[in-house]
Amino acid sequence: MSNNIEITANNELPFEAGNLFKRISVLSYGLLAYTLGCAGLFWLILGFAGIAPIGLSEFKAESISTAILLNIGLIVLFAVQHTVMARPAFKKQLTRFIPQAAERSTYMMMSGVVSIIAAYYWQVLPGTVWTVENTTAQIVLWAIHGAAWTYLLLATFVTNHFELMGLRQVYLYFKNRPYTALPFTRKYMYRYSRHPMMLGFLVGMWSVPMMSVTHLVMAVLFTAYIFIGIAFEEHDLKKVFGNTYRRYKKDIAAFIPGIY
Fold first, then answer.
1. Looking at residue 236, what is its pLDDT?
2. Which contacts of 253-259 are long-range, i.e. CB under 8 A and separated by 24 or more positions?
3. What is the C-alpha to C-alpha distance for residues 195 and 202, in angstroms, rounded to an integer?
């Protein structure tokens, strides 16, 4: 769930001719990674909406405190993967073993894997925090919920969805073309919010007419991860873009102008 396209955009991939089989393999790997990454993300999104089941594993904690600790562990796993694999030092080491064109796809694949693990092993907790009975209020909340996830999706296309998901990199590699860096993005929603994807995720998690205890714990833990992850991301962005990003951070709110 981290917006690292700006970082990857300036890490130009070296031109590698390779053979046809290798290029087809890298492209296939990228498509598989994209599928897994999207599957994990969609499971979480549908889980927050109450459409897809969460916690399908037969393993159940013996107590509520143990269940909460296990859920925290799953979020830590999610956070470590998303944060560590997005760091330039890790990318440098990873590309010693895989083609540089497949680096972002590897991130996407592992993101999908840990998302699926989190959704599958999440420990269900008893109880309901709130239930909105008013029909009009339910419609409003569902409208906000849907708009939030749509906003997140649109934000990925503003920054270049295919670059963010690793597809552009493997496609250029397949076509035997050198990688060209994308410019820093500061248009549409990025003129008002530095992290519109994270804003969409936050609003989508919390704008539901029925909040179970299971959902609440998941929302709280993912919210904590988002704020911690943003701190790491912006630290790297300052290194990559220097004063350009410092000015951007000074001018543009993290989520909503005038609030945060």
1. 87
2. 253/192, 253/193, 253/194, 254/193, 254/194, 254/195, 254/230, 255/193, 255/194, 255/195, 255/198, 255/199, 255/202, 256/192, 256/193, 256/199, 257/192, 257/193
3. 11
Three-class SS of the chain: CCCCHHHHHCCCCCCCCCCHHHHHHHHHHHHHHHHHHHHHHHHHHHHHCCCCCCCCCCCCCCCHHHHHHHHHHHHHHHHHHHHHCCCHHHHHHHCCCCCHHHHHHHHHHHHHHHHHHHHHHCCCCCCEEEECCCHHHHHHHHHHHHHHHHHHHHHHHHCCHHHHCCHHHHHHHHCCCCCCCCCCCCCHHHHCECCHHHHHHHHHHHCCCEEEHHHHHHHHHHHHHHHHHHHHHHHHHHHHHCHHHHHHHHHCECCCCCCC
Mean of the per-residue pLDDT values of the chain:
91
Q: How many CB atoms lie within 10 A of CB 200?
A: 24
pLDDT attached to residue 194: 96
The two three-digit tokens of residue 31, written as one number: 């498509």
Over residues 131-167, the pLDDT tens digits come to: 999 999 999 999 999 999 999 999 999 999 999 999 9
List of the chain residues with pLDDT < 70: 1-18, 260
